[in-house]
Amino acid sequence: MVPATETVLVVDDEQGILEALADLLREEGYRVLTASHGREALERMAEVRPDLVLTDWMMPVLDGPALIERIQQDPVLRHISVLGMSAVDVNGLKRLHPGMEFLQKPFDIRALMKLVRKVLDARRVQEG
């Protein structure tokens, strides 16, 4: 069972994907916030600090790479784990962003949940 305190912010400009991911994560016991682009995600993070940001890579307004850069540069937000999602080849993205986890769209639901858990477990270990 997921600790009740774990919050995931899902960021995707495709409403159907956003709603489906939010529903799946809620069913697994996570507290879920949503945003349709990076700027909205930053606004949500000003209100609530998620444990994980699950973000699409290509979005309007503020895309995934820009969102991640803002998170990493902000001393208040930089502790938040980020998991990227993209329809483009994620192997190239992994080479550009070593140490970051990515999901290839379309993805298997079990693979998504396993990777979310892995990232959150690694975060908990780092916090000690």
From TrEMBL:
<dbReference type="InterPro" id="IPR050595">
    <property type="entry name" value="Bact_response_regulator"/>
</dbReference>
<feature type="domain" description="Response regulatory">
    <location>
        <begin position="7"/>
        <end position="120"/>
    </location>
</feature>
<dbReference type="InterPro" id="IPR011006">
    <property type="entry name" value="CheY-like_superfamily"/>
</dbReference>
<feature type="modified residue" description="4-aspartylphosphate">
    <location>
        <position position="56"/>
    </location>
</feature>
<dbReference type="InterPro" id="IPR001789">
    <property type="entry name" value="Sig_transdc_resp-reg_receiver"/>
</dbReference>
<protein>
    <submittedName>
        <fullName>Response regulator</fullName>
    </submittedName>
</protein>
<dbReference type="Pfam" id="PF00072">
    <property type="entry name" value="Response_reg"/>
</dbReference>
<dbReference type="GO" id="GO:0000160">
    <property type="term" value="P:phosphorelay signal transduction system"/>
</dbReference>
<keyword id="KW-0597">Phosphoprotein</keyword>
